[in-house]
Amino acid sequence: MKNLTKAAPVFVILGLLAIWELAVQLAGIPLYVLPAPSDMLTTFVTELPELLRHAGVTVMEALAGMAISFVIGILMGVLIDAMPTFKKSIYPILVVTQTVPVIVLAPIFIIYMGFGYAPKILTVVLMCFFPIVVSFSDGLGEMDEGYLNLVRTYGGSKFQIYRIVKIPSAVISLLSGLKVAATYSISGAVVGEWIASQSGLGYYLIRAKNGYMLDKVFACVLMIILLSLLMNGLVKLFGYLMIPSRRRRTLKV
Predict the structure, then answer these.
(1) Taking the CB of the first residue and of the last residue of the chain, which one, N or C, has fewer CB atoms within 10 A?
(2) Is 69:128 a contact under the CB 8 Å cutoff?
(3) Which residues of 108-129 are buried (b: 16+ CB within 10 A; e: fewer)?
(4) Mean of the pLDDT values across residues 5-11?
(5) Where exactly are the structural domains of the chain?
(6) What residues contact 137, with CB distance under 8 A and at least 6 apart?
(7) Class of domain 29-244
(8) Which residues lie below 8 Å from residue 252, measured CB to CB, with a gap of 6+?
(9) Prediction pTM value
(10) pLDDT by residue (tens digit) across 37-94?
(11) Distance between CA 98 and CA 92 in Å, rounded?
């Protein structure tokens, strides 16, 4: 019964794909209006070498943006937890950064930073750093005071409190933010590539859309989904390596 519950989403997706396929075939919908799932999969296999070439660029931008977001998230999370004044000053600004659509900011980044990788990576950073900062700072703030008092009793400094107690305890919260950020990272890179690029999945997507090759558009979307799941899986692996084996039994990483 438990295995059936886990497989339920798979059956739902397969059912929706079957309905989609049937609707396209029975209604005779043209390929340039709505491709059937079978057309999408055929194109995906045919275009796989080209998709992988562009995917390499997008993944590189996503990984670079995630790395920068991770460093920013750790530093700002600690500062927000350690300095209440800093939190009151900077937190509203962090929230504001998430209210502005990235698609609006991307052209501005290109004006000031050119057409290279920098504006795409910055787009990823803007989409990814916020969930990391919020989840990590919340994890640091939820620490049991009893553990902190114990370290203080033994003469632990503020640095030692964070290194020994707070940061290790906030790893689970950090991983939650990283999972969200990892899912956004590929989309962030693609958005940056939409504006101005000569490679990457965003460039491929725009080129296919402008040519009304919707089968290629859907094949590219499938690749973006797979890469997003891959990034999420990498975070889970990262969490598996970070969390001691004695804690894995009670935590779902």
Answers:
(1) N
(2) yes
(3) ebbeeeeeebbbbbbbbbbbbb
(4) 73
(5) 29-244
(6) 76, 77, 80, 81, 87
(7) mainly alpha
(8) none
(9) 0.82
(10) 888 899 999 999 999 999 999 999 999 999 999 999 899 988 888 888 888 888 888 8
(11) 10
